[in-house]
Amino acid sequence: MSHILVIDDDDFFREVLVQMLQKDGHQVTEARDGVQALALLQRTHPDLIMTDILMPHMDGVEFITELSRQSNNTPVIAMSGGRRAITAAFNLESAKLMGVKVTLSKPIGHSALNAALREILG
């Protein structure tokens, strides 16, 4: 299967997502924010990155921008549940404007996750 980097500051959500991915046979590396993820990318090369948009320290938009700056072409799935005045749809549209092809609104069901993985990984 694939090696997937999951970036999300919500420990509970990240753990559930990791468990779903591992159950399907994927190898998973975890990060709590974009800063930690960039450090991990110095020593690991995932097939796919799944990142939340709203996170402390370095959010998903900043992380995607840095990937592009580094010419890292690893495919990205952007995820968002939105917060207060900023909706998930707005966050995910921002990611699409940055070149992200697949987005997921939280909470994410197993079938939606699998459909997104098939779209990105084939």
UniProtKB/TrEMBL annotation:
GTP-binding listed as a keyword: no
A GO BP annotation: phosphorelay signal transduction system
Residue ranges of domain Response regulatory in the record: 3-121
Record PTM 4-aspartylphosphate, positions in chain: 52
Keywords: Phosphoprotein
InterPro entries (UniProt xref): Bact_response_regulator, CheY-like_superfamily, Sig_transdc_resp-reg_receiver
This protein's name: Response regulator
